[in-house]
């Protein structure tokens, strides 16, 4: 796949000295779903605003579909659909008129079949003549997606698309995003829901302090940075960690009934055999053993440790 969005040495500094983005490089491949994770204030929304041409760039440049988003702003912006965090819709307008109006802003005429297809895919067709004020919060978010898709963009940015949405509706929206990708739309989403990124994304990007910490294929990221834990259930509770095993990364669980051993499954050796032998030699009796894989959330916390998440 080739890059449909290319960000090079992008920096954004606001008046007052706040350095929101610092030399960001990012290649977004055509047809992929990229999840951008980061704590509050990490620069996620600023990055999207700069790519979409809604915020000025202090340094660097952005190219969308071969068009520089400063020199060829209109051509670059026409390729982008944006679903913002905030729900900002005209309350007395109907769903249909809201979507038609947005399509017209991009100079697109007609498109009745396309609009119907979008509304049906978002379960909004039956609500097309309903005023926005009569919709639930989840339905309003769907209208935002319909607006963003009205002019047939090649790239869709979703900034916290499921914030405040119940679990059932969130999963429905995941299916909608997957369907969009199946029709060739490149999707970039920012989210606070780790499981959202883990369930949907092809690649994961982690941004912290205005810098891209990594962008990696999800499966590769889990392999490279993921850890495994061996949880050892003891027959009798232990009062303390085994003596003489200080070089072994062990933790004693609550009530002393479990020992947890963290290891790298991709290393030269897991050390599990040596660990179990050492426990047996010291009189520890094992009732059960199980393994646990670290989640994307564990990896995210490790990489953004020390950042403000308020």
Automatic annotation (TrEMBL):
Give start and end of each ABC transporter domain: 5-234
* SMART domains the UniProt entry points to: AAA (SM00382)
Q: What is its EC number?
A: 3.6.3.-
- The kind of enzyme this is, by top-level EC class, is hydrolase
* Cross-referenced InterPro entries: AAA+_ATPase, ABC_transporter-like_ATP-bd, ABC_transporter-like_CS, ABC_transporter_ATP-binding, P-loop_NTPase
Q: Would the keyword Nucleotide-binding be found if you checked this record's keyword annotation? A: yes
Keyword annotations: ATP-binding, Hydrolase, Nucleotide-binding, Transport
Give one GO molecular function term: ATP hydrolysis activity
| Matching CDD domains | ABC_DR_subfamily_A
This chain's protein is named Cobalt import ATP-binding protein CbiO
Q: Which organism is it from?
A: Palleronia marisminoris
């Amino acid at each position: 796949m080739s890059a449909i969005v290319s960000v090079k040495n992008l920096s954004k500094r606001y008046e007052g000295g706040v350095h929101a983005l610092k030399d960001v490089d990012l290649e977004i491949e055509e047809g992929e779903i990229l999840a951008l994770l980061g704590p509050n204030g990490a620069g996620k929304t600023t990055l999207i605003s700069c790519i979409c041409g809604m915020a000025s760039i202090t340094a660097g440049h952005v190219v969308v579909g071969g068009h520089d988003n400063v020199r060829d702003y209109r051509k670059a912006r026409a390729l982008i659909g944006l679903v913002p965090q905030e729900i900002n819709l005209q309350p007395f307008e109907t769903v249909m008129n809201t979507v038609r109006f947005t399509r017209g802003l991009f100079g697109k005429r007609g498109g009745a079949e396309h609009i119907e297809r979008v509304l049906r895919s978002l379960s909004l067709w039956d609500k097309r003549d309903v005023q926005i004020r009569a919709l639930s919060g989840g339905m309003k978010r769907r209208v935002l997606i319909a607006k963003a898709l009205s002019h047939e963009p090649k790239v869709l940015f979703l900034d916290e698309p499921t914030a405040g949405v119940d679990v059932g509706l969130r999963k429905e929206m995941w299916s909608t995003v997957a369907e969009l990708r199946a029709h060739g739309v490149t999707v970039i989403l920012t989210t606070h829901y780790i499981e959202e990124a883990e369930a949907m994304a092809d690649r994961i990007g982690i941004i912290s302090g205005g810098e891209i910490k990594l962008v990696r294929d999800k499966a590769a990221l889990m392999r490279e940075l993921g850890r495994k834990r061996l949880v050892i259930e003891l027959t009798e509770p232990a009062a303390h960690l085994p003596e003489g095993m200080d070089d072994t990364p062990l933790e004693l669980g609550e009530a002393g009934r479990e020992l947890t051993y963290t290891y790298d499954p991709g290393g030269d050796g897991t050390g599990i055999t040596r660990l179990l032998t050492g426990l047996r030699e010291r009189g520890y009796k094992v009732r059960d053993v199980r393994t646990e894989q670290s989640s994307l959330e564990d990896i995210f916390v490790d990489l953004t440790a020390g950042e403000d998440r308020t």
